[in-house]
Write a structure and sequence with these properties.
With 509 residues, the protein is an alpha/beta fold. Helices cover 44% and strands 15% of the residues. The chain is built from 22 helices and 18 strands. The two termini are 23 Å apart.
Amino acid sequence: MKLFCRDEMQRLEMAAVTAGVTLAQLMENAGAALAQEVESRCRPALGKRVAVLCGKGNNGGDGFVCARHLSQKGIACVVILTQGEPATDLSREAFAHLPQQVRVLSGGEEKEAAEAAMDTADVIVDCVFGFSFRGELSGVPAHFLGYAGNLACLKVSADLPSGVECDTGRVSAGAFRADVTVTFTGKKPANVSYPGKEFCGETVVRQVGVPPALVEGAETRLFETDDSFPAACLALPDPQSNKGDMGKLLLVCGSWGMAGACVMAAKAALRCGVGLLQIAVEERLYPILAQAVPQAVFLVLDWENRREESEQALLDALEKCTACVMGCGLGERSELLCPLVFSHCRRPMVADADAINFLSRHPGFLENVSIPLVLTPHPGEMARLCDDSIPEIQSDRLGAAQQKARETGTVVALKGAATVIASPDGRCAVNPTGNPGMAKGGSGDVLAGMAGAFLSQGLAPFETAVLAAYLHGRAGDLCAEKYTQRAMLPTDLIDVLPEVFREFPPERP
């Protein structure tokens, strides 16, 4: 599903005007759609009281239209001007058509009366800024948006909650926290990406008059993955395929004390159909892993007694594989193995966990790495990689992933709620699947193994990361249904993958 950034939405609206739709029509339809949503959620509507917070721009104009429609339905409406008189031609026109029974209060001059109206409202509608907001809230708008946060009534926002930035999902202190956000024409990045998504509540998309052909043909930089994506990526194997045709994946993972990370990545890769799985493992771990993953073949390394031989064997394995996964549970061995693998691998690679930590300890190391690379950091790893704090990363997840993808020339999958996948070419996806039950050690190892399998089978790095994140989250949702979020385990994700793949049969050519 396309996500419309601020400039993309403005261009789309101008294209609609060129096609014969007036901006006044778009405003009228938006305000009417907002009113219909409010009315549908507070039935019986008769006798209900609604306070509409309006800004001076066109978002405020949507609010004036909404108040007019609600008033015509017998709902008592109060309009609170948080920025004074309307300042655009469209909003002034909409303001002029407010019926007499709609009470209008100036937030700056009639503060107490406006607060009293909000105190008694059944619904507060936020039409202050919409998708135009940037920066920090201040002044009268900040006061009333913050005041609304202390009230227990239903809260509805037009397009985006005021105080939430459209393109980044960043949230200003005191932002309006909606129960429902009615967004027009299509979702915006902040509707689906945290922290903005949390302030949107339930997002409802309403069409307001932009011709469908224009929406369909509009180019956007971001999208939210939907259930059509897996089938488009998962090709049916050739009937004459053999194991060599189904991907040759090399895992450089695991260390003493963290063998489980390697086991989970390996089993996830096998469940995703990889034809040949080879695991490079130090000698003392071999008996453990051989028993846990009998389907794999092993490259047994002895760094203490046969270092040169082990190094050459690893380089040979890198030549023969079609993709590599490095980092899951690698621990202190990352200082030995990461330089070798990064420097000599000529195949697409997934770098996870300790491989990412290695890169954060050695800034600039990626400058000499030119292979297709997928980085899969969680917020803590991303903070180290960017030399930022976790709160800074989480405050703008979209921006952090996009910037790091551009800087490094890699695909970056920033894990967490609504995982963000960014490509160096500007494409970006937000993943809608998954739940908090997946926030347990080992879930990332499963994701890395899944991504490695798809990469080894020839899928491009960006599509690999998007597909793996979507199916990984879907597996998590199935596990939550079966076991509850509290009781589910990362290993359960692997066990339900067959059910996930049954939900998304490959498209036939």
